[in-house]
């Protein structure tokens, strides 16, 4: 639990730093963004494994509908059982409140997580919400509490999401379609903002200014990791 | 604020005691952002010390001739020249402000009375000439002493202007501007031993320049992946070998160093040597990757060794041995347990430099 909390804290901190680094003079620093995303990834892995252990302990029986994850992922029971754990894990600040709406079947999430997270991160931004700096939640807020399946991104991402992402790069409209059950709440928007902002990076250009719309920033590759991580929230 | 440390040999045996011999700048807490020093570099003889700050200025200190009555004390450094090297710029295409902070200064070997140095910010490198003027001509025929033109019809005799001494004036003038070659932020420059070329490195690319040619450069290393999502490491520092003008090294954020030979191919993406120390699995933490990033690499004067600096340690590598360093020094190992706090206050991202003393000890 401690490890999980610590990991959660570090993830929030990282996202906050990433967001702030956009605002600094001189533009986004590629190296710094990369380092932040690496920390985020480590924290997320720890968080995931800690959550996994905990869920296994807490679980009474395997949930159905699991295992839609992408190749090579440990089937994530947590993915399917936000139920029992959800209440206690939902951090007070309600942002994530929507996740529970994920009461909307886990299976669906899991499934979507394949398609949804990475696109979600990018996606959230795309169709529904114009990326807006203002909508970003203050750091430290927030339940990063999200379906762990989403946290599985790294593998799943490679498997199913990369093409998705590329598609996203080429055509933002596609994101809109892929739009999952609207993640609302600040974190999705955070994800969206970061996503759209960095989408330019993926196109390979360096950064643009502080507008909410796609900026090309040198922090590219990290985007994918960052995106996935952020989506996890 | 600058601290100039002088070595005091104290104690017996190999014990060195280091103490500040001079401190330049403001000691109080209230320092303007623009005055924060971002880089320092001695010239080859050590007589000149150049500092660059966040405001784009370069201040050069010169060591005074040693006082005959106190032969053992090192000469003091006093301000020799100050000039504005870089100004903030705005990249309209990318809506990005380009900081004027000086990232690196490198001196060129001295070839005549003037001194030359390269200074760089995130995007542009400039070659500056610093020269002294201690004489001026007086007695022009067509000008008065105060500069006004004389009426040619009133000149009845000719005279030869003579040189008269004047107060020493140090002038800095930009001789070359090397711009528009880097997409990412420049982190290193290094003058080659041939004294004709130099390299500049940003996060993903290294370019080779000729000191006389400003409108083009050659790209010699490019580690940008085709798909930026696959980016895993960036270049953090690069340096030419002190004697072999075809050899250079560059360090990465993953804690590796690659040595490249420009004779092997035009694009040196394939290294000739690869230096990496296997990671100690017992010391893994959230921040392992950040602290293993190498922030500086320097060849020894002999060219046989190189020194690298990561967050917590300094390592000395023998160029002939790629699988581990020959020496490792923990600089502030006590910080290892505080990495989380350092991450919170951003200190974990600080970049340290390292350098050899004159005799490579």
Automatic annotation (TrEMBL), chain A:
Residues 54-221 are annotated as: Disordered. Residues 94-104, 114-135 have a biased composition (Low complexity). It holds the Pfam family IER. Residues 75-85 have a biased composition (Pro residues). Coiled coil: none annotated. InterPro entries: IER (IPR008653). Belongs to the IER family. This is Immediate early response gene 2 protein.
TrEMBL record, chain B:
It comes from the Eukaryota. The keyword NADP does not apply. Keywords: Repeat, WD repeat. GO terms for cellular component: protein phosphatase type 2A complex. The keyword Transferase does not apply. GO terms for molecular function: protein phosphatase regulator activity. InterPro entries: PP2A_PR55 (IPR000009), PP2A_PR55_CS (IPR018067), WD40/YVTN_repeat-like_dom_sf (IPR015943), WD40_repeat_dom_sf (IPR036322), WD40_rpt (IPR001680). Belongs to the phosphatase 2A regulatory subunit B family. This is Serine/threonine-protein phosphatase 2A 55 kDa regulatory subunit B.
């Amino acid at each position: 639990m401690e490890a999980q909390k610590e990991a959660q804290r570090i993830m929030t901190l990282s996202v906050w730093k990433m967001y702030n680094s956009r605002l600094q003079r001189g533009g986004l620093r590629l190296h710094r963004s990369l380092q932040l995303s690496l920390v985020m990834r480590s924290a997320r892995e720890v968080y995931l494994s800690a959550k996994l252990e905990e869920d296994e302990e807490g679980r009474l029986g395997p949930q159905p509908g699991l295992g839609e994850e992408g190749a090579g992922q440990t089937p994530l029971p947590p993915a399917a059982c936000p139920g029992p754990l959800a209440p206690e894990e939902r951090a007070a600040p309600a942002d994530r409140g929507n996740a529970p709406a994920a009461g909307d079947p886990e299976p669906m999430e899991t499934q979507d997580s394949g398609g949804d997270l990475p696109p979600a991160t990018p996606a959230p931004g795309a169709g529904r919400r114009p990326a807006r700096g203002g909508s970003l939640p203050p750091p430290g807020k927030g339940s990063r509490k999200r379906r762990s399946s989403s946290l599985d991104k790294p593998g799943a991402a490679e498997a199913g999401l990369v093409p998705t992402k590329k598609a996203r790069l080429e055509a933002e409209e596609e994101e809109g379609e892929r739009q999952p059950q609207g993640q609302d709440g600040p974190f999705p928007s955070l994800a969206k903002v970061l996503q759209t902002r960095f989408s330019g990076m993926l196109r390979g250009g360096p950064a643009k200014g502080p507008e909410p719309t796609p900026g090309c920033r040198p922090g590219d590759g990290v985007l994918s990791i960052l995106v996935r991580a952020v989506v996890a929230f | 604020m600058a601290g100039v440390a002088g070595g005091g040999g104290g104690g017996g045996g190999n014990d060195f005691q280091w103490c500040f011999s001079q401190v330049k700048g403001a000691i109080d807490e209230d320092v303007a952002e623009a005055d924060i020093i971002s880089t320092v570099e001695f010239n080859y003889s050590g007589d000149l010390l150049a500092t660059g700050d966040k405001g784009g200025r370069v201040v050069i200190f010169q060591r005074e001739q040693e006082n005959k009555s106190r032969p053992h004390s090192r000469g003091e450094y006093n301000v020799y020249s100050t000039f504005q090297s870089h100004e903030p710029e705005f990249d309209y295409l990318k809506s990005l402000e380009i900081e004027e902070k000086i990232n690196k200064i490198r001196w060129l070997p001295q070839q005549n009375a003037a001194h030359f140095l390269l200074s760089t910010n995130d995007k542009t490198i400039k070659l500056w000439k610093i020269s002294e003027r201690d004489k001026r001509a007086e007695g022009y025929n067509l000008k008065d002493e105060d500069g006004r033109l004389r009426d040619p019809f009133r000149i009845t005799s000719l005279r030869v202007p003579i040189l008269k001494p004047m107060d020493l004036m140090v002038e800095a003038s930009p001789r070359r501007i090397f711009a528009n070659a880097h997409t990412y932020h420049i982190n290193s420059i290094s003058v080659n031993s041939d004294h004709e070329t130099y390299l500049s490195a940003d996060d993903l690319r290294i370019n080779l320049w000729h000191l006389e040619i400003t409108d083009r450069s050659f790209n010699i290393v490019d580690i940008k992946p085709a798909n930026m999502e696959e980016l895993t490491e960036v270049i953090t520092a690069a340096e030419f070998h002190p004697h072999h003008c075809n050899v250079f090294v560059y360090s990465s954020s993953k804690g590796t160093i690659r040595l490249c030979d420009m004779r092997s191919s035009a694009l040196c993406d394939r290294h000739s040597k690869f230096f990496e120390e296997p990671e100690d699995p017992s010391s893994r933490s959230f921040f392992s990757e950040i602290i293993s990033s190498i922030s500086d690499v320097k060849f020894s004067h002999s060219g046989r060794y190189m020194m690298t600096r990561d967050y917590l340690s300094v390592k000395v590598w023998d160029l002939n041995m790629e699988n581990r360093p020959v020496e490792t020094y923990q600089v502030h190992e006590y910080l290892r347990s505080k990495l989380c706090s350092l991450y919170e206050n951003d200190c974990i991202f600080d970049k340290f430099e390292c350098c050899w003393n004159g005799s490579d000890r």
